[in-house]
Predict the structure.
Amino acid sequence: MLSLLSIEWLKIKRYRTFWILSAMFIVLLFLCNWLYSTGIMKLGGPANQILNSNYTFPNVWDNVTYFTKLFSGLLAIIITIITTNEYQFRTNRQNVIDGWKREQFFQAKWLMVLCMSITVTLYSFLLGMFFGLYNGSPVSGATEHMVKLGYVFILTMNYFGFALTLSFLIKRSGMTIISFLLYAYVIEGIAYQVLKWKVNQHAGDFLPMESAANLITFPVMDMARKMMNNEPLASSTLVGMSVGWTIVYYIFGRIRLLKSDW
Amino acid sequence: MEQILSIQQISKSYGPVQALKGVSFDVPEGSVYGILGPNGSGKTTLLATILDVLLADSGTYSWFGGMPHDAARRKIGALLETPNFYHYLSAIDNLEITAAIRQNGSTDRLKVLEQVGLLERKDSKFQTYSLGMKQRLAIGAALLGNPKVLVLDEPTNGLDPNGIAEIRQLIRDLSKQGITIIIASHLLDEIEKVCTHVAILKRGNLLLQGPVNEVLVSEDQIEVISKDIETLRAALQAMPGIKRITNGDRTLLLACEPSVDTYAINEYCISKGIVLSHLLLRKKSLETKFMELTNDPAKN
């Protein structure tokens, strides 16, 4: 496993695009949190702030993880680019010709997804600790709401795994990115409404990306949903759904890759 | 002596197009095995199948008498269809990845780059390479770690005459070291010069296979010209030992029994009062044989 990861690292460590997009993510995430915490930036109208501008423990976790969720799409695109590059350069074939099993190529990419999820979760943790401590709140309150970090991990595994599987299926970078964005911002939204209308209120929460997205909400939105009698599902259900979808991506991608021509 | 590669009844279609139809042959250790065929005959499909890039519809293959395929591939250096590398990485970095996957050859990288003449450009990004340089890098990568077998798909593609001669010499040198080499090509001249065995494919069918000197029966031809072709033809048709007379470009081509040589032809014509203006012994090349086989199945 380590050897697979080290070879993937050899592939990206000198890839400028990877570093630029990663830097963008790191900087943007920090900036947004900073600007929001100092009140310079706001989401929503003046009277009903979506996020609590209170960046102390435990609320800081809500806020930081929310922004992480927002920007995770950027990293999903990195995953897409890295994977579709292999098809474009035909190095997917060459890796197998040189001596990898097809399975190893597949697993190496999922290991990279895992690493990126862990790294993002760690970064969120560091940001949260930074803002919490900076704003002078006692460390004792830190662990409440920290489960949101676990949700970040599950969400990123879901989103990244989805992007990876799309890349395996579509193989061309432009089409994959468009499909991913189209699905995330348009198709799933439509499907959500249709399911809500046709089936029941909660059916839409079972959609692949929705299930993860709903893990990371914030108090104001929760209240709003309660008022509309659309209380979100229990987090354990959502976690189960999200992990389930990730497993589906894995199995589907694996079968496709092992059984098709390269 | 164990077979390096054994292929049994491999068939493969792409939708309605059947690329390979029940192809079987064995590659003996230490041979230089040529796979010949016109474009579209299935050469690359066959090589891709034995390297696990494509999945055959039916049939099997085994390397080194049954070694697991991925372990076998780590002992094989292969170039399939195009040079496949990471465009944004330099030659030496690309080779680092190849060596890491092979679990072998990391210390050979400079040596191999020198062998293919790319040492000066080792730090240039792959995307800056010319076609010939890309091809050389692919051959270099195949040589990493001293593989026991080389599988080369059109290795001279994109190379200038110097490059082609270098590859020919490289193949000869490697063969002397006992390395088995499988080459797919349509450059018959080159194949004829280096191969010990040959398999000929056409439209997915294996037409012939075996040692080069068996498949290539050296049927020499004698080419003659005289002022009156028709008289010449009539006289030669009566001569014993002439198997076949075909028309060349203003010449007659004679396929003869081994007992009939140019001296005999000359003598015979003089005795009939015919004066030849041109008399030439032509060794029938693989090219002619190949063209015959692949253009006219009836003659097979």
In short: Chain A has a mean pLDDT of 85. Chain A touches chain B at residues 3, 6-7, 10-11, 14-16, 85, 89-91, 93-102, 104, 259-262 (CB under 8 Å).
